[in-house]
Every structure is written in structure tokens, then in C-alpha cells.
Q: What sequence folds into this?
């Protein structure tokens, strides 16, 4: 772990916090920090290359006509509290040695503390053939607004054949989303009366449906129950859109009539241009409990940009926010940082027909049955109408509680243990 102390400006001078990214993490951190400090104590500048904030969880629903793209986008500036400066410009690089950010227009921002919140980006060009012939014709992704919108039209006219949902590689944003797509596709085609003419196949590089054994076993059973074929340990090397084939590095092929692909993910491009900032995938090496970067003590990381053994999901960003802000505040005061983040993540998993299940876990604890957040609450690892309503209600929570950086009653940064029931060990599950 890097040293927790760093030379600051003279006592009493205004400190400058620069936040790269005005998505979920950057916005909630900026808003929380603004409430912790006066304008005289701290100046906060947020940088993002565009002015539109996208509610990414809503992209899952667009292909099935359950959400409309124009309702998922709001101005970034409107999500930031008064007293926060927003610069709409791309980042060229970060100079760690000089504590400054160089912008694409050649302006520079000197910082006392840097918060990296630029998330994960799609790099479909890294997979041979993915954006070649057939792209946005019979090969789509729902991980972008344009892709989800185009896919809606394709699904509406897909009446027979093989639909393949393929995760190219991990990590990806919202790891359960491809599974949710399979479940919703099953519901969608049944509602249209064509399900018996359509084969749905889920193709994953993992050895099961999910990364956590307990949840993987349950989700795998649910896929089987819904008639979804699962192809595991498939590492996609080539996508032949014109011919309708996925080709694995081991020579295996999976044929498709319509493919929904989750491309390779990486960190933001500027990270590669910033010496010593990121790893080979452009994610930032980060202390898994303090969320201080491992590259410089005055750099903190939140959300998908972090190189952590945690899911790249919106709930993770929310749970990290309290810890990041607390430790930035402690750093500015010269105090010891707290090991406040335990890898807490939870996900609503839409399963179709007005139902969803909920999983809640952290670095050390598998998703367990029971209830969240207390013994009386939402059911865990169990399909229910209540969880479906919870997933729908989350959009309101996102805009009105999460982004403004407000605390959600009963839901803290650490995983609650009340209400959970112990299950078999990893070895027993695998056996």
C-alpha cells in the first residue's frame, strides 16, 4: 500500500479536487464532497467529454420496448450541486509527477486530490470481425444506447432461428445483464408466440452462468428451466457477422442468426497515455478497502475505473462513494485512511414475467438466501414480484438519492449480515 500522506499546499489555502468523469461515481462523489466542504475550503472541478448523463441500467429494457432511450438521458450539469464546476472536454493525459491533468484543448488542471471515475469503455475493435460485416444488422450490443435502440427493431422482426448472447471476456459492466437479456428474451418471444421457433444460447468465457458458485448454480438452473442453452469456457476470437458464426480461440464455433455481443471492456483511453496510471487494460490499481490508488497517494478511484476484485456494477459505485469521500476528506486533513469498503455489491436480476431475484455479496461472502437488508426485506436468491418492483423503483432512487450523494435508509457501504442464511461451502457446491 502506498504512503497515506502527501505534501499539501500551505495550511489554510483552498484545495483543488479534480474528478475525472461525470457518470455515476464522479457525480455522487462530487455532490457528497460539496456538502462536506465549503467553497473556501475546497474547489471541485468535474471533467467529462460530453454533457449527457445516461442511466445505463435502463439499456437492458430498450430492446424489449420496456424503456425508451430519450427517457434515460439527462444533462450532466443538472445532476451536479451548485458550486461544482463542470468542464465538457476530453482528457489527454494525467501527469502524476506534476499533479496535473492535461485536457484535450491543452488546458491544464493542477490538483491536490484526483478522483478517477471514468468508468469502463467498450472496445469492440479488439475482437476480430465484431464491427465488420453484419455489425448492427445481425450482430448487436445493448451496452450502448445506439445499439440497444437498433436491437429493438431487430428483435421485433426476429421470428425464428438461433439467438446467441455472447460475453467476449470479463470484466464487464453489470455482469448479470447478459443473463437478464436471456431471461427477458424468453419472456419476449413467449409473449409474441414464437418462442418454440427460437433457440436461445448463452455463450460465456466462464465455467458457469456467473462468477460466484452459489449464484452460478441457481442462475444456471434457471437458464435450463427456461430452455436457454449454455456454452461455457468459450473465448471468442472472431465474430463472423456475414456468415453467422462465433469462432473460439480453441477452434469451436457457435452458429447464430442473430447475435447479441457484450464486447471486451477496458478503462478510458487517456489512461494509456498517462505514465504509471493504469494496468494493461487501462484500469487503475486500487486498494480494495480504502479505494486509494496504488499509483499515488493523492489519487482515489471509484466505480468501474478501479482495478478491484469486485463487480463493475452501479451498486458497487454507490457503496464505494461513502468510503471514497470519507478517505478524501481524511487525506486532506492528514489523517489515517479507513478500510471501509468490503466489496459490497448487490444486483436485481430481471427474470421475466414481472419477476426478478436479488443477490447481495462482498469480497468474502457468496450471495446467500435470506432477505435484504434485514430479516424483513426483499427476498434474496428468490424470484419475486417484489424484487421486480424494486428494480423498477431503482431508477427513481438513482436520480433522486444515489446521484445527489444522499444516504439510502438502511443501506450502507458494508454488506449487511442480518437476514442471510448460511449455505454449503464452495467445495460442496462444486461437488
A:
Amino acid at each position: 500500500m502506498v504512503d497515506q500522506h502527501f505534501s499539501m499546499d500551505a495550511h489554510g489555502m483552498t484545495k483543488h479536487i479534480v474528478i475525472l468523469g461525470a457518470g455515476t461515481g464522479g457525480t455522487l462523489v462530487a455532490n457528497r464532497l460539496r456538502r462536506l466542504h465549503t467553497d473556501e475550503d475546497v474547489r471541485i472541478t468535474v471533467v467529462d467529454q460530453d454533457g449527457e448523463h445516461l442511466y445505463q441500467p435502463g439499456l437492458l429494457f430498450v430492446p424489449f420496448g420496456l424503456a425508451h432511450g430519450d427517457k434515460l438521458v439527462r444533462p450532466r450539469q443538472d445532476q451536479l450541486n451548485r458550486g461544482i464546476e463542470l468542464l465538457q472536454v476530453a482528457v489527454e493525459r494525467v501527469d502524476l509527477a506534476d499533479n496535473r491533468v492535461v485536457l484535450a484543448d491543452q488546458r491544464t488542471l493542477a490538483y491536490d486530490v484526483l478522483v478517477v471515475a471514468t468508468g469502463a469503455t467498450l472496445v469492440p475493435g479488439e475482437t476480430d470481425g465484431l464491427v465488420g460485416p453484419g455489425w448492427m444488422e445481425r450482430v448487436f450490443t445493448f451496452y450502448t444506447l445506439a445499439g440497444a435502440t437498433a436491437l429493438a427493431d431487430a428483435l421485433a422482426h426476429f421470428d425464428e432461428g438461433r439467438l446467441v448472447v455472447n460475453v467476449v471476456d470479463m470484466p464487464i459492466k453489470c455482469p448479470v445483464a447478459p443473463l437478464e437479456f436471456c431471461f427477458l428474451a424468453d419472456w419476449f418471444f413467449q409473449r409474441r408466440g414464437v418462442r418454440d421457433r427460437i433457440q436461445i444460447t448463452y455463450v460465456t468465457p466462464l465455467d458457469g452462468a456467473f462468477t460466484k458458485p452459489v449464484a452460478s448454480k441457481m442462475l444456471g438452473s434457471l437458464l435450463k428451466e427456461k430452455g436457454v442453452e449454455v456454452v461455457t469456457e468459450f473465448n471468442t476470437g472472431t465474430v463472423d457477422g456475414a456468415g453467422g458464426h462465433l469462432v473460439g480461440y480453441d477452434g469451436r464455433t457457435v452458429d447464430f442468426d442473430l447475435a447479441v455481443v457484450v464486447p471486451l471492456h477496458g478503462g478510458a483511453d487517456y489512461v494509456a497515455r498517462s505514465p504509471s496510471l493504469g494496468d494493461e487494460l487501462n484500469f487503475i490499481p486500487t486498494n480494495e478497502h480504502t479505494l486509494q490508488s496504488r499509483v499515488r497517494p493523492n489519487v482515489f478511484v471509484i466505480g468501474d475505473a478501479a482495478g478491484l476484485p469486485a463487480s463493475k456494477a452501479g451498486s458497487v459505485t454507490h457503496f464505494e462513494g461513502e468510503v471514497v469521500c470519507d478517505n478524501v476528506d481524511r487525506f486532506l486533513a492528514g489523517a489515517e485512511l479507513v478500510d471501509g469498503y468490503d466489496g459490497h455489491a448487490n444486483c436485481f436480476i430481471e427474470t421475466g414475467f414481472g419477476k426478478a431475484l436479488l443477490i447481495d455479496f462482498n469480497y468474502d461472502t457468496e450471495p446467500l438466501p435470506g432477505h435484504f437488508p434485514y430479516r424483513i426485506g426483499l427476498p434474496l436468491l428468490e424470484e419475486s414480484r417484489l424484487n421486480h418492483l424494486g428494480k423498477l423503483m431503482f431508477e427513481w432512487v438513482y436520480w433522486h438519492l444515489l446521484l445527489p450523494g444522499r444516504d439510502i435508509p438502511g443501506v450502507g457501504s458494508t454488506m449487511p449480515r442480518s437476514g442471510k442464511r448460511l449455505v454449503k461451502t464452495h467445495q460442496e457446491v462444486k461437488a
